[in-house]
Specification:
This protein is of the alpha/beta class. It is built from three helices and eight strands, in the order E-H-E-H-E-E-H-E-E-E-E. The longest helix is centred in the N-terminal third of the chain and has 17 residues.
């Protein structure tokens, strides 16, 4: 499924996230990075909560806005970053961001657009935009040479 400013209900978004979780588990021996982009209130943390729950996280999932990182361990190690308050590459280094790249795990980064040049090359981005109270516009892509390349999220190989 290719998403390019696709209008989706929350139910449709949840179905996509559930299917994405299966795809992640089928690739759990790879380094997987998902970057979430969107304004306040578009659903970045809701996306993370649904995905992590589908991956077997039983504890309460919250955004690591003030801690920068929360780790979860299930059948796949999950590293949940929120970089909203990060201003420099040194701050990324200090929170250990680079230590989690290229590990056999899932890195999920909220506000990925704020550190776009530091995101791993294999990052699968989900951009979420407001529409109304019952839907959002969603795009999924990778970046090649700084350009968006829309990809089939169920067949993306995370390499």
């Amino acid at each position: 499924m290719v998403l390019k400013d696709t209008k989706l209900s929350f139910e449709q978004i949840n179905d996509i996230i559930d299917k994405l979780s299966n795809h992640i588990m089928n690739n759990k021996n790879k380094s997987i990075c998902i970057g979430l982009i969107g304004d306040l209130g578009t659903g970045k943390t809701a996306f993370a909560k649904r995905l992590f729950s589908a991956l077997g996280v039983s504890e309460t999932v919250k955004s690591p806005t003030f801690t920068y990182l929360i780790e979860y361990n299930t059948d796949i190690d999950i590293y949940h970053f929120d970089v909203y308050r990060i201003n420099t590459e040194d701050e990324l280094y200090n929170i250990g961001f680079y230590d989690y790249i290229d590990t056999n795990s899932l890195m999920l980064v909220e506000w990925a657009n704020l550190i776009i040049d530091e995101m791993p090359e294999n990052t699968l981005f989900f951009e979420i935009k407001h529409n109304d109270l019952e839907s959002r516009y969603v795009s999924s892509y990778i970046l090649k040479g700084g350009e968006k390349v829309y990809v089939d999220i169920y067949n993306y190989n995370f390499n």
